[in-house]
């Protein structure tokens, strides 16, 4: 989405990051609580696109000991905004103010670590990381995706733990490869360069399968069917979370023991905004059904402070009296809620 310099009214419109079962509950159906599934306490992963990509990195850096892998699509370096909206707009989407300094961000992470507000560097170095960016992305500069890959390369113990993909002729969003029998509306999907109404890009590119296969290189196939259920997010209610979230559970995981992938949508990509397009067509569920993986789809909501339903990667959900928002630490309001969901899935029924 391109904005003219004179269109200051587009500021809120751009804020921030453009961002196989139907998931809508019936009007008279009240979603139940998030179930305790005895999910595996190890091998969890967190993935996300756009604002969800920024949030995925925040969770992985804050709690690296709780994850084995992280996947980030169409986003820039961890903590890029540093709690400042002006940086988010001008250095973490566009690069009008130049590229962020990785050295400065490293010092930020080290300071947090000294205060025990993020995980230890040793645990961070053991993750597997997947970074994807479209070369035609005019919402988040592709240079920022390259910088994110460089940042993770600094942190990881080996270059073999990182896969970085730059996708030629692809814009801003989450690329997918639709199965032949898919009945997605053309209006719901964008082509490779344009986000359409959903930022789910029909590019014939199975980024979900590529990413999860990278994050779980030794996972054996354990094919089964599965279903998407809605759950009440009020138990985890914090600023910016919607009332309802979604969960994909393969039949093979109903008895417990499966790892969890937290999948974070981008701005304008929640169920309230685009229906079930991301939850149903991201490709994550197909891989999860084939390999025994639970997929959690938390949902953010739109508000005056966050009109496009983004995840908090610049500090809007924190207290206004804080000089330095702690959204990118273990004390982050939304980060704590998302980790509480993971812990609940890993608990015994």
Automatic annotation (TrEMBL):
Keyword hit for Hydrolase: yes
Span of the signal peptide: 1-25
Keywords of this entry: Hydrolase, Signal
Family matches, as Gene3D superfamilies: alpha/beta hydrolase
Protein name, per record: Poly(3-hydroxybutyrate) depolymerase
């Amino acid at each position: 989405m391109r904005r003219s310099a004179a269109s200051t009214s587009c500021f809120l419109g751009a804020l921030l990051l453009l961002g196989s079962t139907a998931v809508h509950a019936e009007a008279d159906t009240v979603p139940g609580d998030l179930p305790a599934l005895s999910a595996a306490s190890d091998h969890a992963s967190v993935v996300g696109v756009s604002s969800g990509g920024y949030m995925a990195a925040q969770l992985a850096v804050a709690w690296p000991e709780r994850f084995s892998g992280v996947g980030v699509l169409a986003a820039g370096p961890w903590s890029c905004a540093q709690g400042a909206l002006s940086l988010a707009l001008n250095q973490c989407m566009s690069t009008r103010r130049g590229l962020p300094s990785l050295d400065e961000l490293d010092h930020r992470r080290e300071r947090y670590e000294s205060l025990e507000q993020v995980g230890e560097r040793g645990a961070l170095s053991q993750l597997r990381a997947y970074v994807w960016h479209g070369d035609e992305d005019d919402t988040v500069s592709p240079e920022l995706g390259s910088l994110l890959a460089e940042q993770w390369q600094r942190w990881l113990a080996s270059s073999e733990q990182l896969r970085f993909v730059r996708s030629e002729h692809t814009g801003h969003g989450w690329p997918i490869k639709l199965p032949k029998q898919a009945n997605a509306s053309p209006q719901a999907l964008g082509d490779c360069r344009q986000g359409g109404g959903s930022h789910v890009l029909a590019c014939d590119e199975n980024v979900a399968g590529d990413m999860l296969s990278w994050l779980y290189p030794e996972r054996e196939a354990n094919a089964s069917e599965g279903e998407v259920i809605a759950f009440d997010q009020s138990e985890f209610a914090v600023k910016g979370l919607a009332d309802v979230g979604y969960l994909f559970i393969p039949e093979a995981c109903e008895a417990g023991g499966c790892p969890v992938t937290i999948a974070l949508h981008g701005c304008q990509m929640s169920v309230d905004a685009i229906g079930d397009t991301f939850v149903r067509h991201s490709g994550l569920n197909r891989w999860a059904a084939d390999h025994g993986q639970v997929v959690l789809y938390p949902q953010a909501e739109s508000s005056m402070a966050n009109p496009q339903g983004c995840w908090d990667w610049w500090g809007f959900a924190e207290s206004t009296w804080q000089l330095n928002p702690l959204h990118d630490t273990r004390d982050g309001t939304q980060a704590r809620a998302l980790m509480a969901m993971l812990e609940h899935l890993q608990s015994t029924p």
